[in-house]
Amino acid sequence: MLRNNYTLKIKCVRFLRTSVCILLCLMCLIPFWMMFVNATRTTHDIRSSITLIPGTNLLKNIASLQDTFKNMDINVFRSMWNSLVIAAPSTLLAVYVSSLTAYGIFVYDFKLRKAAWNFIMFVMLVPGSVAAIGFYRCMLQMKLIDSYLPLILPAAASPSVVFFMHQYMKSALSTEMIEAARIDGAGEIRIFHTIITPLMKPAMATQAIFLFVISWNNLFIPSMILTTDSKKTLPMFVQILQSYAFKTDYGAVYVGLSVTVLPLFLIYFLLSRYIVAGVALGGVKE
Amino acid sequence: MKNIKAKRKAQKSVSYGKYGYLFIAPFFIIYFIFDLWPLFTTFYYSFFEYYIRNLTESMNFCGFDNYRNVLGITAGEKAYFLKYLKNTVILWLGNFIPQILLSLLLAVWLTDNRCRLKGIGLTKVMIYLPNMITAASISVLFGVMFSQYGPVTAFLRDVCKVTIPYGDFLKDIGSTRFLISFVLFWMWFGSTTILLISGMLGINPNLYEAADIDGAGGWKKFTKITVPLLKPILLYTLITSAIGGLQMYDIPALFNTDAAAMIGLPDDTTTTVTMYIMRLYKADVGKASAISVLLFLITLAISVVLFCIMGDHEKGGK
């Protein structure tokens, strides 16, 4: 009797908790679903009713969106390409230089090792935007305004990535391995590139996903640096879209938003397993 | 063992030490040029009256005048920094408090062995999704959905019979702040939940078994075992969220704003500190720098607190 009561209670609790979890999942999905649905409806329908069933106006909305940006140097695909041109090299650079730095601190014993490590740990929490004014003036003096370099190069100094790589090295590398390679006559730089890099691949891949997304989504610094319309990134395009949102038709706005979101949706659902595992390791807040 | 280690250390330092500098050099060169030097010049500019108007620059030393101006100490100047800091803190608290409570609850549920739920992996994937998507797009999406003619507004008004202040959420201070906080909460609770789950999985299950034998209930186990052992992760979450929250830009800057003037509507009540910097960065370099320095000092204070507490914890743990 007691046993039965207990199982019943557990069943009730499980039902309640499952319902709440399902509701939360829906809460995370429905805004996106509504966005995609509204992208297929006419502005009149969007304004008058709410629904989760797609309409038939998608092509017209796309045409209208293209029409809005016809006379401008920027459109959604152009801005997406610009974001890719910035995000891809900055990700590669950040992963490579961070591994290099973490390896240097992990393997070698030198006078400033402890100081360098403490410095990295300390600046990890200092966000870039507090130095934005100095950064902007500095780029102005270096004639790098409206260029992609100030958005790519600084990624090479990502303290949190160095920290993550160092943590990973602690568990994945052993000094014996490196000494064996030395005995075989490999140079230090070659050891890093041919022995260490392959071992670091899982950590590099995880960090690369997050770095890419962070760079892709960045709005603050690019809005300061980029001035020409044709060079603007995807989040900056969304900003332009926002200023049009209340003048033009809503259908086009929803199509525009949907297009900006689609690539990340694809990336996320392909790699979600690794991404969630990466979040669990911490240190990805930006 | 100790001897061997010491010997190895000595060998390394003799022959390979210089490679250490070679490997860490790129990071430090880039960091000094693009982060440390700009930080230094930001400090420097904050002591100058530094205007750029009609392509002419004027730069005169003015001591702490910029600080006095943004803090409203000078007569006739409004304390904009404090006003926007207050906006930022309100928006941050409005998202963080519900976020940490829900995340704790969810993390407890999803790690409960006695009542195993199905689809935990899928739940994690779903609740983390909003965090990956471009914040700018999310902000504009919620903006158009809750605008005066937005579908959600119409639904709430016509079907749910909700009375909407001024007939438009975006004209009401409380509603706009609530919506911005909600969007932030919606974006971040998944990330926090996953982080807390990984912390909870690290807690020794024997502790819970012992508590069960002693007859402790769910609440008692939560307050006496889970929360104390989760303290470092809770602290980490609090601090990173606070630092990130102070830099809050994308969501408030695109949600309901006069974009050209960088004013958070309605009536300048959702303008954050970084939006203030964005408003001034081109024309009034001195003032913008002073704001940045104040923001930096607050961030630094928060980081130092974390650094001390985490450091203590590591020593205590080992």
Q: What's the arrangement of secondary structure elements?
A:
The complex is a heterodimer of chains A (286) and B (318).
Chain A: H1 2-38, H2 43-48, H3 58-68, H4 76-107, H5 113-123, H6 132-141, H7 149-152, H8 159-172, H9 175-183, H10 188-217, H11 220-225, H12 234-245, H13 250-280
Chain B: H1 2-15, H2 17-45, E1 48-53, E2 56-61, H3 65-70, H4 80-111, H5 120-132, H6 135-145, H7 151-158, H8 173-201, H9 205-213, H10 218-246, H11 250-255, E3 257-258, E4 263-264, H12 273-280, H13 285-317
Antiparallel strand pairs in B: 1-2, 3-4
Could you please describe the fold and organization of this structure?
The complex is a heterodimer of chains A (286) and B (318). Helices cover 74% and strands 0% of the residues of chain A. Chain A has a single domain (76-280), classed as MetI-like fold. The mean pLDDT of chain A is 88. By secondary structure, chain A is an all-alpha fold. With 318 residues, chain B is mostly helical. Chain B has two domains: 2-45, no CATH class; 80-280, MetI-like fold, CATH 1.10.3720. In chain B, 71% of the residues lie in helices and 5% in strands. Chain B has 13 helices and four strands. In chain B, the strands form two sheets. A two-stranded antiparallel ribbon of chain B has the order 1-2. In chain B, helix 4 packs across helix 8, helix 8 crosses helix 10 and helix 12 (273-280) packs antiparallel against helix 13. The longest helix of chain B is centred in the last third of the chain and has 33 residues, at 285-317. The model of chain B has no long low-confidence stretch (mean pLDDT 86). Chains A and B meet through helix 1, helix 2, helix 4, helix 5 and helix 6 of A and helix 1, helix 2, helix 4, helix 5 and helix 6 of B.
